[in-house]
Amino acid sequence: MTSDSTRLDAIIVGAGFSGLYALHRLREQGLRTIILEKAENVGGTWLFNRYPGARCDIESIEYSYSFSEEIEQEWVWTETMPRQPEIEAYLNFVADRLDLRRDIRFHTEVTAMTFDEAASEWEVRTADGKAFVAPFVVAATGILSVPKEPEIPGMGAFEGVSLFTSRWPKQHVDLTGKRVGVIGTGSTGVQLIPVVAQQAGHLTVFQRSPAYTLPWEVRPFDDGELDELKANYAQIRAAQREHAVGAARLSAFSVMFEMMTKPPLKSASREEQLRAVEEGGIIGALSWGDVFFDIEANQMAAKLYGEAVARIVKNPETAAALTPSHPFGCKRPIIDQGYYETFNRDNVTLVDLRKGPIVEVTPTGIHTEQGDHELDVIIYATGFDAMTGAMTRIAVTGRDELSLGDFWTTEGPYAYLGIAVAGFPNLFIIQAAGSPAPASNFVTALEQHVEWIGDCIGYLRANGYRSIEALPDAQREWIEHATSLVAPTVLDHPSCNSWYNGGNVPGKKRMYMGYTAGIPEYRRRCDEVADAGYTGFKLA
Ligand code: FAD
Ligand code: N01
Prior knowledge:
Blueprint: E1 10-13, H1 17-28, E2 33-36, H2 45-48, H3 69-74, H4 84-97, E3 104-105, E4 110-116, E5 121-126, E6 131-134, E7 136-139, E8 161-164, E9 179-183, H5 187-199, E10 202-207, E11 213-215, H6 225-231, H7 233-242, H8 252-259, H9 270-286, H10 295-312, H11 316-321, E12 334-336, H12 339-342, E13 348-352, E14 358-362, E15 365-368, E16 371-374, E17 377-380, H13 389-392, E18 395-397, H14 404-410, E19 427-429, H15 442-462, E20 468-470, H16 472-486, H17 519-531, E21 537-539
Parallel strand pairs: 1-2, 1-7, 2-3, 4-18, 7-19, 8-17, 9-10, 9-17, 10-13, 11-12
Antiparallel strand pairs: 4-5, 5-6, 14-15, 15-16, 20-21
Helix pairs in contact: 1-15, 9-10, 15-17
Bound molecules: flavin-adenine dinucleotide and 3-acetylpyridine adenine dinucleotide.
């Protein structure tokens, strides 16, 4: 039996960007709603990933909630692209401004959820033995919230300090004068490495796959600039909403989007190619209309990219080692500040693991097939079990004892509209596979999700329906549609292992998990489904 305080209209799991807005929205609709959050505070991504250099690569005025004009006007961003502490502070401000904390249970990890078909409700169990019951569950558990720690022999025996970027300590970490090793050169490594290089006595970067990274200036707002932007917020939001990647101003995604409008590389003369690198540097090397659609053009662009890197990195061997061999676009690119220049510093060494992998971590450092590196600190920036990781760590049992973890592991990470899974009625997942989350401004995408879910629950309650469940055929068709969008592109090239296709996690069922037709098209399709009375769902 559950007491009244544990019987609710809706339960949200997770108090990051998604869960906070979902709580506000469902409360506004009059639903008794709580958030269960395993951490001690709000913030999710921006609470955990507090490593040096962490920041967003979408402009602050776009990577922020658009649903509240008051919040838009009251919050003061100090930089074009905000650092982690500012985003964390922003989410705390939102939680206080909307009085959300009274309905958030912190230190509460959800371990199991079971659907009771007769009662048409979910029982949600937590690690401290509590049970909560509600007809609806919104899983706002994050697409990048479960770190993927490498399984390198000897990690536990290291006698120095081991640090993980995705759970960086809150207290100051002093790297001054230390011999630091960084494993991982994805988006996190690219942000971390230039900052650590300035502090460490010596930095050794252990690189398995070089990154594609787009250098761009990030700067504080000029006097009066933010006020001017705020005065035009309505237009900024309208443009953002209609942009395919949910960010009309500068972002890694909009830079990529812009590239598609350029002439093809395959018909460019050598002079034109060199001019592109001379005038546009790293970004110029990649800015060709055919790079995302033609693997040969992509490989040519990678070569040009290498030439652009070699113009910055003085040591030719290091420059060659920093040139990626996977297709551009199949992993998330990033905007960086001084990444390649960092490798010209006397205190930085690059170890190209393509020439000989890490064998083990020893008590005093890292042993690779190429030799030994004595270290005081090892920083792991090794990525995430993305998209499905958080939900497969909860024992989610739907209708007929179906396990979500088993289904996604054996069949693939299917979901209808990237929101709901057949066999799991009344469970809404914010940004499951088949949603635009991976390749867009996440905040634009999640606002759409939350509003669609809120409207859906409102519709069910207003029309006397107790349950909604995705139909298997609709789910299959949606996934076929989503994956067919990337089939003619290089985004899911077989040579590429990334969190986009699950290839970064050994044993994970491989499937491209993003929806790439853009947020406006995605919104149009979701609205079409709702307007027609939720086609593809069974309402009971
Ligand atoms: P999260 O912020 O991940 O929050 C999920 C919450 O759920 C967490 O607080 C977690 O503790 C909680 N939770 C999970 N499982 C349970 C459980 N079983 N029980 C209880 N609580 C649970 N996106 C962009 O668009 N632009 C960027 O520039 C960008 N930068 C990023 C930088 C980093 C380092 C990372 C890791 C991600 C970045 N992202 C970026 C993606 C980012 O994750 C999203 O933008 C957004 O912050 C996700 O919000 P969320 O609320 O959906 O998930
Ligand atoms: O993770 P990743 P991330 N030995 O998976 C390497 C968002 N984000 O945390 O590619 C050696 O990209 C691995 O090598 P390889 C963004 O969406 C955004 O950097 O598997 N190396 C790779 O180099 C991003 O995409 C911002 O060969 C090992 C790295 O670790 C997502 O988060 C900032 C290894 C992991 O790269 C994830 O980024 C930061 C091993 N055993 C993050 N295991 C923005 O500002 C793994 N690696 C937007």
